[in-house]
Amino acid sequence: MNYPRPQLQRSNWFSLNGPWRFTFADGKNYRVPADVREWPLTIEVPYVPESKRSGIEDTTFHRECWYSRDFQYQIPEAGRVLLHFGAVDYHALVWVNDIHVARHSGGFTPFFIDITHALDPSGTQRITVQVEDDPEDLEKPRGKQDWALEPHSIWYHRTTGIWQTVWLETVPRTYVKRVRWTPHLERWEVGFEALLEGEIAEGMELYVKLTTADQLLVEDRYRVIGDQMHRRLALADPGIEDYRNDLLWSPEHPRLIHAQVKLTQGGEVLDEFLSYTALRSVKVHRDRFLLNGRLYPLRLVLDQGYWHDSLMTAPSDEALRRDVELVKAMGFNGVRKHQKLEDPRFLYWADTLGLVVWSEMPSAYRFTTRSIKRLMREWIQAIERDYSHPCIIVWVPFNESWGGPDLTASQPHRDAVHAFYHLSKTLDPSRPVIGNDGWESSATDIIGIHDYDHNPQTLRERYGPQVKPEELFDRRRPGGRILTLDGFPHRGQPIMLTEFGGVAYVRPVDELHHSAWGYVRHDDIDEFERVVLTLIEVARTTAMFSGFCYTQFADTFQEANGLLFADRTPKIPLEKIAEAVRGTRAQGALSWESV
């Protein structure tokens, strides 16, 4: 089992994944663990009961379920025991040995609890979790989870309950609760922030050591004055660009900086952990995106982050790594994670193997005071969780006006998008933010356009060199929606085609053949290949675009418009996709005019 929180790794931890007792409790009015007298089911955590991997595979509507597990764990002589949940959808109540220890709302973000006081000295422990998740509630962030009983169109089966790792770790009485790394490429520095939990005593110090695979970069000690520490770790600037480039992180050269951090007092190590960061910068300059101060065309693929048998939970850590490797093998340099806050293990592999990530908040679908409060609370937690991952280059709080459907007419809907844009910039001024991706843009650093016209020639004519940006924003309505709101004209920001393609192909033997969905469908594999590769070529060679994102990485249930089948088998040879994405197709290859 790999450590579930890759940027703050301690040695003393214990996974609670595996078989748990389970029951649905709709209408039974259970209030405390003692009320649950029968546990008729066993579930494999962290897979949700709707999934095959869970061992239950029940996709009917359930508003409430309960989990319980017994295990052996001795109380440490000195220190604390923390119980972590990677993600639980949606409202969770937690008991340890029938003592209520926590409640949490939010289906995509982690939480943890100090459970030391609730542990049994005998070493026999019991955790019980109640989860409430109304399948028809459209006021909560839910992403692609269908509110109808059976998935339709672009919506998928629901996710109920625990869907990321549950684990314990032992920490000292005073420990580092959170770290943040901020690269400052212009100053050749790395910002380091640490939040401590527990009593701060005289003589405490933080030791920080930064290394690459073959070089010591920083080794310093800092006196602990309060429960928060902010330091700039200055690196020796190598000066010459070739030497500088060797230390910078990019998809083509994912150089990580490894960190060892210790909290000490009088020479005694109280707390220690491993982490990592990277030296890189992301920004927009006029109409282009820059990585490390250089023009960097973004070649992305939209990734739903689902698996057929396990839904939003990856079947294994190897599956997450394999997805990153497949994206790179197809020539893309990044993914737009769509309507999902991905497991930190995926971000670890993107950091390690080299892949940029657009992080997008899963949408709520009604605009109410409660939906905005829920969305904002979880978005703040998402930025806090993932801030230090070098792979993340853009934050996207809204997509296609979902959760704010009346942007053209409602000032409160516009104000919500503006509030989330400025909140994101406040919490993280180091990354671009797209207020609302796809259309009806106002507060944004990048204008994203979603256009699923499947005719390559039409796309070329719509966005080609003969079209001026002001004409595009005044007249074009892909999807029937205006691209920018009145009062918010194009100010020279980069323009990107952030959704296009959506071409479906299904094998005749596929079980979903009768219900497969796509924006357009081709049943001939040669025709499918010709159209897909030509659409990608048009997006890549259109000068107006500083980046593109093809829909999509893999088939996802009835949505059959992937470059790969749901089992990650390629529909088109990977090298052919890579040639189109990178622009290395041989002379005489298909041109857009021939389609």
From TrEMBL:
Residues 282-577 form the Glycoside hydrolase family 2 catalytic domain. Keywords: Hydrolase. Signal peptide: none annotated. It holds the Pfam family Glyco_hydro_2_N2. InterPro entries: Beta-gal/glucu_dom_sf, Beta-mannosidase-like_N2, Galactose-bd-like_sf, GH, GH2_Domain-Containing, Glyco_hydro_2_cat. The lineage of its organism: Bacteria, Pseudomonadati, Thermodesulfobacteriota, Desulfuromonadia, Geobacterales. One of its GO terms (molecular function) is hydrolase activity, hydrolyzing O-glycosyl compounds. This is Beta-galactosidase.
